[in-house]
Amino acid sequence: MHLAYPAVLAALLFCTGLYGVLARRNAILVLMSVELMLNAVNLNLVAFDVWLRDALHSGQALTLFTIAIAAAEIGIGLAIVLAVYRNRASSDIDRLRDTAETDEAEELPDDPDDESDAEAPEDQATAPAGKAKKAEATA
Amino acid sequence: MIATGVASLDPALAAAASHPGFLSPTGVEIAFVLVGIATLGAALVTVTTRQLVHAALWLIVALGGLAVEYLLLTAEFIAWVQVLIYVGSVVVLLLFGLMLTRAPIGRSPDADSENRWTALAVAVAAAGTLVWVVVDAFRTTWIELDGPAQGSTEATGSFLFRHWVLPFEALSVLLLAALVGAIVLSRRGRETAPGATAPRASAPGANAPRATAPREDKR
Amino acid sequence: MTTTTLAALVPLLPFLGAAAGLLLGRSAPGFVRPLAVLPSLASLVIAAVVAARQGGGPAIDASTQLTPTGSVPIDLALHLDGFAVLVAVLVGLVASCVQIYSTAYLRDDPRYPSYAALVSLFTSAMLLVVYSGDLMVLLVGWEIMGICSYFLVGHYWETPEARAASLKAFLVTKLGDVPFLIGLFALAADTGTFRITGILGSVAHGGLDHPTLIALLLLAGVAGKSAQFPLHTWLPDAMAGPTPVSALIHAATMVAAGIYFVARLLPVFAESGAALVVLAVMAAVTMIGSGLAALAQDDIKRVLAYSTIGQLGYMSGALAVGDRGAAVFHLISHGAFKAVLFLAAGVVIHAAGTNSLAAMSRMGGLAKRIPDAYWTMTVALLALAAIPPFAGFFSKEAVLVAAEHTALGDRHVAPAAAGWTVLVAGLLAAVLTAAYATRLWLLAFRGRGAEAPDHGRQPAAMTSVLWVLAVPTMAFGITVGVITDWFDGHSLTPSLTTAVLSTGVGLVGGLVTYGAWRHTTAIAARTPMGSVVAHPDAEPALVEIEALESHTAAYGPAGDAPDPADPGRLLLGPLHRHAATGFHLDALYAALFVRPVQAAASLVRFLDREVVETYVRGSATGARWLGTAVRRAQTGNVQTYLSALLAGSLVLAVAAVVFANVNAGS
Fold first, then answer.
1. What spatial distance separates the first Cα and last Cα of chain B, rounded to whole Å?
2. In angstroms, rounded to a whole number, what is the distance separating the alpha carbons of residues C261 and C145?
3. Residues whose CB is less than 8 angstroms from the CB of residue C230 and which lie 6 or more positions away in sequence, other chains included
4. By the 8 A CB rule, do C115 and C109 touch?
5. Which of B83, C167, C222, C482 is most buried, most CB within 10 Å of its CB?
6. Collapsing DSSP states into helix, strand and coil, what is residue C542?
7. Please, what are the domains in chain A?
8. Mind giving me the DSSP string for C57-103?
9. How far is A94 from chain C (nearest CA, A)?
10. Looking at this predicted complex, what is its ipTM?
């Protein structure tokens, strides 16, 4: 088999994951995209390991480790997302803009917290969540 | 980098010349490409669909397709691990996460952020560059898949526990640490959350109207 | 103690007095007066001892080098010849008298401590100039005097006249000091040393390459310091300072420094005949112009100021004919009688309540009210008019004799042209001097009209010093036979021709003025004018300040008064108008220098405000816009940041690949 096939597939998968990381709004979807990127790397590792016929099989060993680490990463990542969600009632990445440089930079640290805490119930109950959040994020 | 890569591949280059070209693919190759197209398609749907839960389900397809690719590359053990861990646990975790964060069921029109077009540009440029570089470097490289399976459970067990014992043990410590970390993160959140929200909840009436007003306007 | 040590103490004591006075002025006001007077008196005594020990013998030289100073070797050197020791005695005497006088004159002044300290510093600087054997050290004293004159002339800085005058004094003298400094360096470059002895030795062996250039450069500084035409304009305006300061500046320190400097380096000037002729012409113009101007002034102090300029012209004339003995002789006698004149003028102003001669001429009984000032001033005016046997006669005679000898070819130090110029101008100036001295005396003490306001008895501190200074005014001339030892050794005694001639023309000038005065007194009675201030209990300086202010208010600026009864007006005729304003030199300078400089300043201001500032503001605005633009990028959105990061690394990766291929291909 040509090495180009798995290599190109891995590259395309990686870039798909890249797009997901950059474009997705929900933190969990971002985590999914990260998984895609990791898997693309895994595919590369396996393909090159098979091609090189390494006596130590370092490619496959590393793939196993990567899978294990990815599992750990997803666990921690989800814990963080849940913690953020609990505090902010949102898991949207582009609403977490505490570091934004605005003209009213002094007001920012307080405002998002207050808004999101105060609104969280009705936010979820009354409105399509995403739209409401988007409006709030731009407000 | 490419230059050195090509230089080191010179002996293989001579051997590769005797292998069939891209216009006369072998059966394995055809299978690999077909599965690969399915995998890539599933991955693309994963990162573009507007239904969050569907994204997780399409991820299963993509990861499963990758497992098949591993099989085609004769890495059996990794293929089964892939199915077990990714399809079996990671995706399940992600689904749990979606549910715990009350992700909406059904289409959410703003699943993608405003950064979408930038992301697309960066991703396409990166894909172009990577494909160009990879093809440029490996277009004549041939993988010999015949002979003893390199990724059978037996072979994997032997190299893993013969050569990679120490990293394996270290990894188990890392997993333990991740486990503890996840628990701590969750626990602390649960303890501090009431304390943190209590003072703010004391005057919801004052905050809510002011905060919701602009939201109504924007909508 | 050795003579050298004593001589070092002379400038040091007033300096220490000044430092102590400045330090203790606030905390211990009781010490201020002793600290002002005692160091000056001690300096006087020590200077007298030094003069006695030196005794007109060969010059004493001593030097020490504190630290090597590279290519400009600066020695703390003393050069004590006859000129130095005698001038130092004069400086000490006048400074002591001024300090004693000031204790009464400025007794209630809140700024007296700093004033006294500055006078001490001034004295110290002058003594440094006098004793110094090194031109760089001399320059230090020279410049300290410049800055002290600025502060002291501006002592009444509440009045605009004093502010303008102090600035003018400083700027005009600095204008001369710039070429002076260049001249000093040129001199040192030619002779290879700043030591006066070294320079004179080098000059004696013909080691001077550019004598005319150096002499002219140095003359510019001398003209500024010694108020010679055309840089004399600061001196009449400096009358806005307190009277004792005027006495100090005019009699012994500042203006004497220039003459003294030329006297010290006379061989350098004598190398260049052109420089001596320039000096002679300068002296002649100064003498005659100042005499005419003095005849037209209304402010008593301005009359004396112009007379100072004229007398300095005599000294310059003596130097121009190469006789430094005569110059320094006249310097010393002039120092004595001019100090008397100024200090007495201070008493007169206090007693009369005005500084205007026009007002004094309409005031009776001033002479009886202040007999001390009356008599001493009479004596000093006689000395000024060069009437025998007072000091001024002998010293002026020495100048005229030297000029005559040069003109007739008996002396060959200077060109005959210089001699004739000085001789003729000197005789003309003698007429004018006698005329304005007579006018001053008649207007001040022979006025008719209402009684002068009663200011009580003048303080003893003020009147006693007048008599102290009157002694040398009367008797110094008698020493002419003895004093030649100190002054290069050649005779200073008057010759019969010049004595008869100058005394004769002096008497003529005086008598003509008297006639004119008799003619005009009738008019004076018909045209009452003048404003008088009376503060019987306040310090005398207060009267002077108010008189200065009211003078400007009553008669307009520049010391002129529209008094038809002025004999000077009768004598000068159409010239009076020009003479009163100092022959419009100030207006000329204003047109030539002040206005162009102001125009240039406004141009620079425009360039700075409108052009440079625009760039400055533009850079600030640009930075702010840039900041706004960059701030736009800080959205807080992690995904945006990550996109930029990845795009950047992509570019880098592509660049690396491309370059690697290019390099591999080449």
1. 52
2. 14
3. C223, C585
4. yes
5. C222
6. helix
7. 4-138 (1.10.287.3510)
8. -SPEEEEE-SS--TTS---EEEEE-HHHHHHHHHHHHHHHHHHHHHH
9. 5
10. 0.75
- Asked if residues C201 and C170 have their Cβ atoms less than 8 Å apart, the reply is no
Q: pLDDT tens for residues A66-112?
A: 999 998 999 899 988 888 888 888 888 877 777 777 665 444 444 44
Q: What is the CA radius of gyration of chain B?
A: 25
CA distances from residue C439 to A45, B171, C360, C491, C560 in whole angstroms, order as listed: 120, 118, 12, 34, 15
A 102-131 → B contacts, CB under 8 A: 113-115, 117-119, 122, 124, 127-131
The tokens describing C131, both together, are: 């004793």
**A23 and B119 Cβ atoms separated by less than 8 Å:** yes
| Spatial distance between the Cα atoms of A29 and A88, rounded to a whole number of angstroms | 18
Residue-level pLDDT at C408: 83
- pLDDT band at residue A136 under the 50/70/90 scheme: very low
Residue among C636, C642, C643 minimizing CB distance to A99: C636
CB-based contact, C206 to chain A, within 8 Å: no
Cα–Cα separations (whole angstroms), residue B79 to A104, B61, B84, C547: 53, 14, 9, 114
Which band of pLDDT confidence, cut at 50, 70 and 90, is reported for residue B10?
A: very low
Cβ contact C486:C82 at 8 Å: yes
Q: What's C110-174 look like in SS3?
A: CCHHHHHHHHHHHHHHHHHHHHECEHHHHHHHHHHHHHHHHHHHHHHCCCHHHHHHHHHHHHHHH
Distances (CA, A) of C490 to B80, C480, C485: 130, 11, 8
DSSP helix/strand/coil, C42 = helix
Q: B165-201 and B153-163 are packed helices; what angle lies between their axes, rounded to 10 degrees?
A: 90
Q: What amino acid occupies position C331?
A: L
Residues 6+ apart with CB under 8 A from C652: none
Cβ-count burial of A106 within 10 angstroms (0-12 exposed, 13-18 middle, 19+ buried)? exposed
What is the per-residue pLDDT for C602? 93
**pTM strictly above 0.90:** no
Regions of chain C where pLDDT drops below 70 = 1, 452-456, 489, 524-525, 527-539, 550-565, 666
Q: Which residues of A touch B122 (CB under 8 A)?
A: 18-19, 22
Residue B113 backbone class (left: φ over 0; alpha: ψ -120 to 50; beta: rest): beta
Count the neighbouring beta carbons within 10 Å of the beta carbon of residue C156. Answer: 23
Residue C550 token pair: 């009211």
Q: How far apart are the CA of C646 and the nearest CA of chain A, in angstroms?
A: 9
Of residues B111, B139, B168, nearest to A25 (C-beta)? B111
- Give the integer Cα–Cα distance in Å for C98 and C339: 8
Distance of CA C665 to the CA centre of its chain: 86
Distance of CA B56 to CAs A29, A32, A38, Å?
Answer: 8, 7, 16
Q: List pLDDT tens digits, range C175-191.
A: 888 999 998 888 888 88
Residue C118 near residue C109, CB atoms below 8 Å:
no
Q: Show the CA angle centred on residue A122, arms to residues A118 and A123, nearest 5°.
A: 85
**Cβ pair C5, C57 in contact under 8 A:** no
Q: Encoding tokens for residue C229?
A: 């035409």
- For residues C567 and C444, give the distance between their C-alpha atoms in angstroms, rounded to a whole number: 13
Cis peptide before C564 (omega within 30 of 0): no
Structure tokens, C161: 């006249």
Chain B positions touching A65 (Cβ under 8 A) are 167-168, 171
For the segment B76-104, the average pLDDT, to the nearest whole number, is: 87
